[in-house]
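Good morning C.,

I know you're traveling, so I'll keep this short. The sequence:
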Amino acid sequence: MIERSIIQSRGAKNVVLENGQPGFQFQLRNPNYRGVQASLIDGIDVTLNGKSYPSETANWTLQGQTYSLPEVLNSTTVRWQLDELATITIPVDAPLPNGIYDLQVCVYIRRPYIPGPFCRSPFRASAKVVVVNSGELTGPQLSVSTYSYTGDMYTLMTLEDVMADIADIGATGIEMLAEGNIPGYPTPSNAWRDEWFGLLDKYQLTPTNLGTWVDTAMWYNKDLTVEQGTAQIRHDLQLAKSLGFTSIRPKFGVTTLELDPHPIWQESVLRSLDLAEELDIVICPEIHSPTPIKHKVTQDYIEFINTHKSSKFKLMIDTGIFQTAPCDDGHEGIEVKGGKRPPFLEPLNVPMADLQEILQHVYFIQTKFFEIDDQLNDLHIPWQPIVETLQNAGWKGWLSSEYEGRREPYRGRDQVRRQHALLRNLLK
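The tokens, ready to paste straight into the viewer:
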């Protein structure tokens, strides 16, 4: 995917130059209306966080080869095509820490058919680029849920675009919504499966959790039976196994405002544990706001774990339960009446001590968030105490980004990058 913006959000990163000096790299689309011979590129002025870098300091990577500006100007076979990104590399004094940076560029392209002083055409652009320094983590591992790209996926972004974004920030896991992101669910085509595995290999990603549903109130006049709920779970376990996932999250329909799951959940899960054991897939019910940890719903799940002693039934934590400030963005399909939000959207601010008590039962964590500002401050979720609690307990499962803020085009992409920059600062 090539973004319409001249400065691309993907590809901003630290590099080491051939002389060992630190460098900064980013990508541009061709701002012209046609492709050009590289010899018509007349340089680029770069300003990064207020510091200027003149044209002669920048190297250009085109068609897999890197050139200095004089080499670009004297080239005879190199082109900058409209469907090709140019990679720009500039020397910097020191590697850039994880964070958000103001980047301005002015790209000069000579257009010989335009007369005199107007031949050298400037194309200006600016953007806030997010730098995420990837690297191996020794504690919790980082994943991204495709839910973060809701509205963009399969409209503005392909499956490959999503995977490329995830890999670009150094995350190694991908979480998916079965019915939300798998074309042809419940029986995806062999062609899609082949594409899925090919892209997993290309971007070196590990499938983590498959989000599934047990829609107990599927019909007005009757609820799902235990047999039907069991069949749904067992189908999704098989699907998860066939696609490489290690857990499923069956979201049961609820019967109360505090998200009490439909009563069939226990027997349906119990009848599916044998298959979960056989397939080595963990069934993870989600602890989601407005249900706190110290609540009958959560305690019933823990009692089920203790009673049946199965390693294939554990908890999933949605970090929205730790929310400390209200957020009215991102709750699509929920009507706010009279300017007052529904009670279940009020922040729970669950204490970290409650999380610590149950961590032994937690298999997966969805790192729900709504907005991270230009200073990498999350306006709603307290990441430092969450990360400290996990690290102090030695928890090493998946942290999977789940953006649920405003569904503006590409906003989820930018916000996920911001969250990973924030988390990597804390996970050191």
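Safe travels,
E.
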